[in-house]
Q: What sequence folds into this?
């Protein structure tokens, strides 16, 4: 059993360690462990020496912590590189058209913007109904059978009477069915990417008059 003086010396070493700044890394723990170990070796009872298994266990724990710290440092470096590469890749979207959730079609003097939809399952019949700003049906398109997934189409901008549709904004409604009933679809609209805005919650695309969208909202890049 340790004498009173020996215990005081050992406890003093422990108190000295705990009174210093809290350990923030495995190196700090190693230094503190060695300080305490030396104090114990100096003052241990020769008839009752330190248990080697405890020493081995403590060294193993410190080495494990050091390995975890090194792994975390490596992962943080890799994560930073991935974020940098993603930012560079995202800038390549600027100037490209994308299909995002929406039901708008713009008609200009010479062209119309694409429209589309995303289907949860395959459909035997798909119909696109195009309406003007007053809600009047100006055209209907029979798109036929479609597989599940994203589909994009181009309206020729011609009304039911085969006259050109006036320039402006139109809306598209998608109706899809199969043998079991209606198929859920999400309408998609075309937008041009004008810029990339990094935020704390991820990258946000500047779509001009269409507002903004996140990367996960992009269903197709045209």
A:
């Amino acid at each position: 059993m340790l004498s009173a003086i020996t215990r005081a010396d050992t406890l003093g070493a422990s108190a000295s360690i705990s009174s210093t700044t809290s350990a923030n890394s495995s190196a700090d723990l190693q230094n503190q462990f060695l300080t305490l170990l030396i104090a114990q070796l100096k003052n241990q009872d020769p008839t009752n020496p330190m248990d080697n298994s405890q020493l081995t266990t403590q060294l193993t724990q410190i080495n494990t912590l050091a390995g975890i710290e090194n792994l975390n440092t490596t992962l943080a470096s890799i994560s930073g590189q991935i974020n940098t590469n993603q930012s560079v890749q995202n800038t390549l979207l600027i100037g490209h058209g994308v299909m995002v959730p929406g039901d708008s079609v713009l008609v200009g003097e010479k062209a119309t913007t694409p429209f589309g939809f995303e289907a949860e399952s395959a459909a035997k019949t798909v119909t696109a109904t195009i309406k003007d700003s007053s809600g009047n049906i100006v055209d209907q398109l029979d798109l036929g059978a479609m597989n599940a997934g994203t589909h994009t189409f181009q309206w020729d901008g011609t009304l039911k009477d085969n006259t050109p549709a006036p320039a402006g904004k139109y809306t598209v409604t998608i109706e899809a069915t199969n043998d079991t009933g209606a198929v859920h679809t999400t309408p998609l609209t075309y937008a041009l990417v004008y810029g990339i805005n990094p935020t704390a919650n991820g990258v946000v695309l500047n779509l001009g008059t269409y507002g903004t969208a996140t990367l996960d909202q992009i269903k197709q890049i045209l």
Summary: The chain has a mean pLDDT of 79.
